[in-house]
Amino acid sequence: MQQNTDIEKDLQLRELDAMCVNESRLEHRWYHNLKYLIVGILFGIVFVKAEVISWFRIQEMFRLQSFHMYGIIGSAVVVGIISVWLIKKFNIKTIYGEPIKIAPKTFNKGQIIGGLIFGFGWALTGACPGPLFAQIGTGATVIAVTLLSAIAGTWVYGYLREKLPH
């Protein structure tokens, strides 16, 4: 019983620290990560085929000239809503039997500021974090600048996190 309370305290601390609360405690050999590489490659192929990585498609979206990207984003939101509902309703566990805990979220003004910064960066570069690697993989190596900028932005956020509105 003591172990369960320690786990609960650990989860609460990790929620406050904005860390992944579902991070597995299991350790695997290196080749277990190959499944993520394969899924990533397949996901990149889907991005390319769906034209999600196209700078022109992204510009069309921000200029309200095409429904293409809104349809893709909207369908992803619907799939996400259904997935979270199913996880909560049926208490679905990870493939290793670990519970999935979805922490309650509260709204704050920092989310608006962060969303605006993210949107401006997306509109300027024509890339959001998801397709960056697929864009680089298709030969658009100039996107490496965007990738490095995203990494730098993440580092700056981590450095200034305590001073930012949350």
From TrEMBL:
The chain crosses the membrane at residues 34-56, 68-87, 112-134, 140-160. Pfam families: Sulf_transp. The keyword Coiled coil does not apply. Keywords: Membrane, Transmembrane, Transmembrane helix. InterPro entries: Sulf_transp_TsuA/YedE. The keyword tRNA-binding does not apply. This is Sulphur transport domain-containing protein. It comes from Mycovorax composti.
